[in-house]
Amino acid sequence: MIPSEAEYARAVELLRAGELVAFPTETVYGLGADAANPAAVAKIFAAKGRPADHPLIVHLSGHDAVDHWAEQVPDVAWELMETFWPGPLTLILKKQAWVPSTVTGGQDTVGLRVPGHTVALELLRRFAAASGEHAGIAAPSANRFGRISPTTAVHVQEELGERISLILDGGPCKVGIESTIVDCSRGEPVVLRPGHIAPAHLEAVLGRCPAIATATGAPRVSGSLAAHYAPQTPMRLVAGHRLLDFLNAQRHKGDRCGVIGHSQPPQAGMPHLWRMLPADPVGYAHDLYAALREMDHAGVSSIAVEALPDGAAWAAVVDRLRRAVAGSGSS
Ligand code: TXA
Ligand code: MG
């Protein structure tokens, strides 16, 4: 699915006028504004209801723009860019003095990413052609603060439709969970948010496994809040071997429970709303947010998610599920 010429032109016009445009990336949909225009960036925070001290990622059309936004870029960061951009990797780097503090949440660093989606790249190239070759689009995920990130244009419409001028539709997102964030601003690279690019992929470039940040001492990352990516329906994780007992008990209580599983249902003909996700971490990530939204829409009174396997390959989806459980049922 590709936007028309007229839609691209309108998107660039709106961005240049300081308005918001939602656009697809390969991870999730973003809510974009001209990153060099603090008044435009402020509209992102207002539309999402996001606290002002949470920094945004600046999306660029290519590596060439990096030095315009960041300084003291270490060699290791260039190596990561060469390997993974365009793609689902965000690098945290020391910011140039001019970069507006509305974008960086008042920090001395800036998050940069060249997304791997043809519509995002086309928008970024056209915006840079019109506004200056290093121009960037600041964009968080296009959901209300704390809620599930959108992976289709319809999700963005549901979340923010009445608050934004234009949504570019690029079809469903390929990856389905947010980018991996690696902090390269303070010596050894540290993973701040796990994602599709796993520690093993980073290790192949870095020559060693990167450290994974713990909540304390890490720079502010809204996706690192204990409660995030959350459905409105209360949700819990249940071990696969306990699922049958758990669901029977819920039924006795009169609870209409929805189930998100990845292995076979424990027995045929269960009366619950079942949503089966692929039993591999990449497929699971691709479908997870849409499944959570589906459960919210189905009007179930709670969601049971079959607990996931251990292991590094599952770390990114386990991370999102844990935070979704913590934030679920809050509205
Ligand atoms: O895949 C993605 O990363 C999507 C797409 C749209 O690019 N964007 C996204 O944005 O997930 P957002 O704002 O929902 O999450 C970005 C995370 C936030 O948790 C923010 O705190 C962190 O990146 N971040 C941005 N700049 C940072 C900085 N200078 N230091 C530490 N964390 C930063
Ligand atoms: Mg987000």
Describe what this molecule looks like in 3D.
- This protein has 331 residues and is α/β, with parallel strands linked by helices.
- It folds into two domains: 208 residues, DHBP synthase (Alpha-Beta Complex), CATH 3.90.870; 93 residues, Rossmann fold (3-Layer(aba) Sandwich), CATH 3.40.50.
- Helices cover 34% and strands 16% of the residues.
- The strands form two sheets. It has a ten-stranded mixed beta sheet with strand order 7-1-2-6-3-5-4-8-9-10, sandwiched between helices.
- A hairpin with a 6-residue loop joins strand 8 and strand 9.
- Helix 1 crosses helix 6.
- The model has no long low-confidence stretch (mean pLDDT 93).
- Bound molecules: threonylcarbamoyladenylate (TXA) and magnesium ion.
- Magnesium ion binds next to loops.
- Magnesium ion (MG) binds next to loops.
The CATH architecture of the largest domain can be named as Alpha-Beta Complex
Name of the CATH homologous superfamily of the largest domain: DHBP synthase
Strands, total number: 14
User: Which fold does the CATH topology of the largest domain refer to?
Assistant: DHBP synthase
Bound molecules: threonylcarbamoyladenylate, magnesium ion
CATH class of the largest domain: Alpha Beta
Strand numbers in spatial order across the main sheet: 7-1-2-6-3-5-4-8-9-10
